[in-house]
Design a protein that fits this description.
The chain has 267 residues and is mostly helical. It has nine helices and two strands; from the N terminus they run ααααααααββα. It has one domain. The longest helix is centred in the N-terminal third of the chain and has 30 residues.
């Protein structure tokens, strides 16, 4: 096997280590960025840290809950494994929706301006998804479909991808998502002083993230039951439908925020 294209690491121990490293890097970096933005936007730093903690816990629970709901038949045989996060099994959009909802509600209850707080957290959210995808790469989860491209990778035979595709080279889909997240972070960071009204930066981040994910999902391997429609021989999966829904909702929120801002001046 070509060592350049071989992904080193094995089973649950590697999965747990990669997840721990991703969290150890992502959480402090995201918190530091958020606190830096809090200072610029005159937000209470202590309250913002509380919002971050609530959003993190809700995000993990939401990601696990959606994964369990999507794989109920597997967990019926052993419900105790629902809490075994070290075995893998998190769905990004479940965590995103739960974390965003919990974070916004917490910010409002703590007296923080909700949309200003959302904008302060937008860079952290984006860079967190990028770091998380690198963790997925070393975990061996969220792997891609077979490819003949020169940068295709080969996972160990006892990994999830190895069990599905053997020694075949597959798309490093996790790294595609990570690279897209880094580019989006650069865009968000560059525009954070220019986007108005408050909340626009946050919803723009989700909009671009969701739109970008639609084509990238074509490189990722999904279970056959996740396909919901085939058009001209092209199979679309549930994740792409969710991405479309989130992108449309984000666009509507941006239009609503701008309309609400223009309304007083028009009157």
């Amino acid at each position: 096997m070509d060592p350049v294209h071989e992904v080193l690491g094995r089973s649950a121990l590697v999965s747990l280590s990669a997840t721990a490293i991703a969290l150890a890097l992502g959480v402090p970096l995201g918190t530091w960025l958020a606190l830096r933005e809090a200072k610029r936007l005159n937000l209470d730093s202590d309250k913002l840290v509380s919002v971050i903690l609530v959003a993190l816990v809700a995000g993990v629970l939401g990601a696990r809950m959606l994964y369990v709901l999507e794989h109920v038949s597997e967990f019926r045989r052993e419900w105790g494994s629902v809490v075994a996060l070290w075995q893998g099994g998190l769905t990004l959009y479940g965590g995103l929706v739960a974390g965003v909802f919990a974070g916004l509600v917490t910010a409002r209850r703590m007296g923080l301006p909700m949309w200003v707080t959302a904008d302060a957290l937008a860079p952290s959210l984006v860079i967190g998804t990028a770091i998380g995808r690198v963790g997925c790469f070393f975990n061996g989860c969220c792997y891609g479909r077979p490819t003949h491209l020169p940068w295709g990778v080969t996972f160990p035979p006892d990994s999830f991808a190895g069990l599905d595709f053997g020694n075949a080279k597959i798309h490093p889909s996790q790294l595609y998502f990570a690279l897209a997240g880094i580019v989006l972070f650069g865009l968000v960071w560059a525009l954070r002083r220019r986007m108005s009204p408050p909340g626009t930066l946050f919803w723009m981040s989700l909009l671009v993230f969701a739109v970008t994910r639609i084509p990238l999902d074509f490189t990722r391997a999904y279970e056959p039951e996740t396909a919901f429609i085939t058009i001209a021989g092209v199979e679309f999966v549930e994740s792409q439908l969710s991405s479309l829904g989130i992108s449309l909702f984000s666009l509507l929120m941006i239009l609503r925020l701008r309309r609400e801002t223009l309304a007083p001046s028009t009157a």
